[in-house]
User: Fold this.
Amino acid sequence: MTRITAITTAFLLSSASLAFPHQQTVDPLTTSSVSNAQRVEALLQGEGRPGDSVTSVSDPNVTFTVMENGLVERRNDRYGTVQYIRPLAPWERGFDYRGGR
Assistant:
């Protein structure tokens, strides 16, 4: 009876730890568990460092790169276009800012 109780307790404790989500404290630009859209949005919000680069999953021809001056370069190799985007500072976003442009 003690053996069954010990096995049941061990099983319940191991499954209970999986049921609760763990708070992730990771860098959103370098972790693969973060979606690609979140990485691009982090760059566009000014959270990247010079040299950080993210390639779009839906269109691999589009690459977002943080430049030395803080601008984000959006390059589309298929069409040969380059666009420079100034990241929005936190005080410029407003309370209803949901990302995007």
Remarks:
- The chain is about 30% helix and 20% strand.
- The first strand starts at residue 53 and ends at 55.
